[in-house]
Specification:
The complex is a heterodimer of chains A (about 140) and B (about 160).
Chain A lengths: L10 H28 L32 H25 L9 H24 L13
Chain B lengths: L13 H13 L11 H9 L22 E5 L7 H10 L5 E5 L1 H5 L23 E3 L6 H15 L12
Parallel strand pairs in B: 1-2, 2-3
Helix pairs in contact in B: 1-5, 2-5
The chains are: A mainly alpha (about 140), B alpha/beta (about 160).
Protein name (chain A): NADH-quinone oxidoreductase subunit
Function (chain A): NDH-1 shuttles electrons from NADH, via FMN and iron-sulfur (Fe-S) centers, to quinones in the respiratory chain.
EC number (chain A): 7.1.1.-
Chain lengths: ~140, ~160
């Protein structure tokens, strides 16, 4: 019987992934819950400053919300484009030689379309000059 | 004053707490915090010759949030007092305070009429558990203070009392 890739395949894989997700959640949230039960719920204070962020004893001067170069932000955005590329091409690479996808030019065209659209973002950023590491200053005139 | 009414947790296990107290007594983590010349003696105590790590108390933490013993090592000026208060607040429970040297106990040589800049003793604003006299105290005195603090933290004794036996 020929397999249709619209039918629900890989049942046991879904189970495994669900089990691992639940296990991961338990390992992430479990310690927080256990610590909450075992920790002292308050700390004795003489100046009510236990929540102060700075740990040198002195009161902080100024705010931590300062303005800095937007270059890092743009760079991180562009990283996302490459990241999505890689993220979605890995499953394609593992499944491409599968019997379901054999002898079909349609899948290849779909991949080309997908990568092409993602590349448009990179081309756009390239034209805008994101890859040149320059400090962008906009002076108020 | 001393340590009383240590805030407790939701779930408590008597036996486990006893064991945890012994562990705490054997690994006190002092705050890296020296405010005057007694801190030099504190450093000497931490170093190889006097070797505080024999008693498990050598892990001086640079952050108040990781330490459980505050060694008030030296003269407390009125300008420094708010900082010390903040550091004490930021330490997690259970926490203990040791006053090292005469200045931290009572103001030491600064306790005279007309003196305007020194706080006369750490116990003016902190619950001090152990007082170590000296000007400055010898490292052996600080070690003795650490051992006294261990006895305060748990019933477990590092050595038997030879006079009691």
């Amino acid at each position: 019987m020929e397999q249709q890739f619209t039918t629900f395949m890989y049942h046991e894989h879904v189970l495994w992934i669900a089990a691992f997700t639940l296990g991961g959640l338990a390992f992430a949230l479990g310690p927080i819950a256990i610590v909450y039960l075992l920790m002292p719920l308050r700390t004795r204070q003489v100046a009510q400053k236990a929540k102060q962020f700075i740990e040198c004893g002195m009161d902080p001067i100024g705010d931590s919300w300062i303005r800095y170069g937007v270059v890092f932000y743009l760079y991180a955005l562009i990283f996302l484009a490459f990241d999505v590329d890689v993220l979605f091409l890995f499953p394609v690479a593992t499944a491409y030689n599968d019997a379901v996808f054999a002898s079909s030019i349609r899948d290849f065209i779909e991949i080309v379309l997908f990568v092409g659209i993602l590349s448009l973002a990179i081309v756009y950023a390239w034209i805008k000059g994101v890859f040149k590491w320059e400090r962008k200053t906009y002076l108020r005139r | 004053m001393g340590t009383k009414n240590i805030p407790s947790s939701v779930v408590q296990f008597a036996l486990a707490d006893k064991l945890i107290d012994i562990s705490r007594a054997n690994s006190l983590w002092p705050l890296t915090f020296g405010i005057a010349c007694c801190a030099i003696e504190m450093m000497a105590t931490g170093c190889a010759r006097f070797d505080m790590s024999r008693f498990g108390a050598e892990v001086f933490r640079p952050s108040a949030r990781q330490s459980d013993v505050m060694i008030v090592a030296g003269t407390i000026t009125k300008k420094m007092m708010p900082g010390i208060k903040t550091l004490y607040d930021q330490m997690p429970e259970p926490k203990w305070v040791m006053a090292l040297g005469n200045c931290a106990i009572s103001g030491g040589p600064f306790a005279f009429d007309g003196q305007y800049s020194i706080v006369l003793g750490a116990d003016e604003f902190l619950p001090v558990d152990v007082y170590v006299p000296g000007c400055p105290p010898r490292p052996e005195a600080l070690l003795q203070g650490i051992i006294e603090l261990e006895h305060l933290v748990s019933d477990w004794k590092r050595w038997k009392n030879p006079e009691a036996a």
